[in-house]
Amino acid sequence: MDRKENLVLIAAALLWMMVSAETSPATHLPGCQDKCGDVSIPYPFGTSKGCYFNEYFHITCDTKITPPIPFLWSSNLKVLSISLDGHMRILTYVGADCYSKSGASESPTGSYAVLPAFPFSNTRNKFFGIGCDTIAFLSGVDIRGQTYSTGCLSLCSDIGSVTNGSCNGIGCCQIPIPENLLNYNASVGSVRNHTDIWESNPCGFAFLAEEESFNFTIANLTNIKNTTLLPSSIDWAIGNQTCEEAKKNVTGYACKAYSDCYNSSNGLGYLCSCSAGYIGNPYLPDGCQDVDECKDSNLNKCLKKCHNTNGNYTCSCPKGYHGDGRKDGQGCSADQLLLVMIVVGKHLIFRV
C-alpha cells in the first residue's frame, strides 16, 4: 500500500468519526456479538462461528473474567483494539534478565509471540533493549518461512549519562523490525553481567512494542521490571491474494458494494475501504452507506443550496442567482433582472 492509499484509509476513518454521531452503520453481522468487554469486534472479526470471515479472524472472548477479555485466535495474546484500516493492537511480553551483585543470573524471562496469520507492523513497532549492560537479541520467522536475526547493544557507565526520551544506545537501544514478521523470540544478554553498574541497574530488558506507546525514561532502567506486557501492533488483511486476483472470485471477494480494494503493504492479502462519499464497514453487505454531506457544512463546499446525491453532492444557487453555487468555484451572482429590481426598489424607498 503506497502513501496515497494510506491517506485514503486515514481520510475514510476521519470521515467516519465526523458523521458517526448522526449515523450508526452496522459493524458486525446480524445476531453476532459486537463487543468483548470494552473492545469492539467489527466484522470480518467475530467471536463465534458464522460471525467471522474465516478462522484467522476468530476472536476468543473470555467471559470468565470481568470485564471479558478478547484474545487473538489460537493464542494467549490479549487484544486491545481492532480498526477497519487494517491494524490491531495486542499485548506482548517484556523479556528480562536480572543479576545478583556477584553477577549470577536470576530467573531470566524471554519475550515471544506466535501469530496465526497476520504479521507485526514494521511501521508502528520497534525492537527495544533497555539497560546499562544489555545485549538485546531478536530472532523470528516471516510469513514465508524465512528466518531473521538481529539485535542491539545498550551500554552506560553511570545513570548520569542517560537522557530521558533518548534511545540511542546509552541506556536504551532500538531498531526497526522487518516486514512480514510473523513469529519472534526476544532474549537478553549482558557483557559483564551488570557487575559494573549493579547498584543502579541490575537488570536488562528486551521487547517488541509500539514506538508511540513506549517513551524511554531513566526510570525505565529499574521500574520496567514491574511491567510484563506492552502494546504492539499487527497488520491484518484478507486472505493471501492481491486485489486483482481476489476480484476474480466474486463469491469469496470481501469488499462489498461502494467500496475500494487496496493491497496489503505488510504481508499477504488485501484491505477494503468505503469509497469516497460513503462510510461504514466495507466488509458487510450494505455496510457502506451514503454520507449526507449537506447536513454538515464542514463536509460540503456549497455557498447557498446543497443537494445530496448517492456518494456525492451538488451545489446550486437560489432563484434570481446564477453560478455553480460553490465556495471554491463561481459562487452565486445575482441575475441582471434581479439587480435592476434591487436598484429600482432602493430608489423608490429613498424617494419616499
From TrEMBL:
Residues 290-324 form the EGF-like domain. CDD domains: EGF_CA (cd00054). Pfam families: EGF_CA, GUB_WAK_bind. It is found in: Membrane. It comes from the Eukaryota. InterPro entries: EGF, EGF-like_Ca-bd_dom, EGF-type_Asp/Asn_hydroxyl_site, EGF_Ca-bd_CS, NOTCH1_EGF-like, WAK_GUB. SMART domains: EGF, EGF_CA. This is EGF-like domain-containing protein. It comes from Salix dunnii.
